[in-house]
Amino acid sequence: MPLLQCVLLCVTAVQYARSGPAAASRRAQPAPDTNAVVQQAVERVLDSALANRAFPGAIAVIGNRRGIIAEYAVGHLDWAPSPAPDMHTMWDLASLTKVVGVTTGLMQLVAEGKVAIDAPVQRYLPNWTGPHKELVTVRHLLTHTAGLPAFEPYDRQTHNADSMATLMFGTPMDTLPGVRMVYSDIGGYLMGRIIESVSGERLDRYVRKHIFEPLGMFDTMYQPPESLWYRVAPTEFDSTRGGLLRGRVHDERAYYLGGISGHAGLFSTAADLARFARMMLNGGTLEGRRFLPADVIEKFTAKTLVADRALGWQKPNGTNSAGHLMSDRAFGHTGFTGTSIWMDPTNDVFVILLTNRVDPTRANNKIGRVRVALADSVMSHIH
Length: 383
Known about the structure:
Elements: H1 3-18, H2 20-24, H3 34-51, E1 57-64, E2 67-75, E3 91-92, H4 96-111, H5 121-124, H6 138-142, H7 161-169, H8 185-199, H9 203-215, E4 221-222, E5 237-238, E6 243-244, H10 252-256, E7 266-268, H11 270-281, E8 285-286, E9 289-290, H12 294-301, E10 331-335, E11 339-344, E12 349-355, H13 367-379
Antiparallel strand pairs: 1-2, 1-12, 3-7, 4-7, 5-6, 8-9, 10-11, 11-12
């Protein structure tokens, strides 16, 4: 073994021994060589981020199609005295809802021939009418080129779920489709409505029945019951909604829709998302069972001609949260609350980071640098 790796292994072993039983329960048992170096790199990034107060708590999980190779948790669920995060802490995924839930659901429906990517949205939502909306396709929604605004502050107009849904659904277009890319929560909401229209099932029931339960992701859900709130990381302090939000979706529009939407609302754990990432890196299979066709995954995760977008997913561009070392086959996404997931099939690696950086305020914007540092630190040790 090279001298440098030997030294790093020894340092890691000493730090692990000193950390005590609580930390031991939150860390992976690193395998020799590369895995141990990756483990140490992850610890270094998260320890530094916590010291910089980028978040009250976080967990990172690194793995490949075979399993987890490093995991590390830091901090606590809140700045106030609270439990430490672990693999089963539930986090508000924010916009990871768009990819883990809605994009995956659309991938299934495309594979089943029930949705066509280049079909007009009005084929599936015939009541979605207005100037130029007949020109918008499912592909436009997936690539955020539908001509829709990023969002509208409808929560300042209504707190009624039905009224919120009417406003979201009726949002007029800003431009013709295909003119420009504007990352849109309205488009994410509409993709959820397409799933409901085609499947005949409410969105939360569809993703639970067809994605999460079959994958063994039993802690991934909309509207976690109060019995689980003790392990949900809180998000922002919002006096309008009763103080520190915990177990209730952070996004205002999703909140007043009742907690269920295509653009936000899912809660999940590091353990569950690791299963999802392994399935995606395995070409749609996990533990001998197929969940998605490999060619559909390739189609949805390939770079389009639109900025850094695939279909639903984001692609590395040298300036986003993928860092600088992932391959051009990599795909991922971020969530406003401080979550992110990246998968790189070429290097057979996934990088998951779950935080509640918006606790107690969304003004804390230090997470961007942490995401890049984590991705680059991991990828620099992946061979």
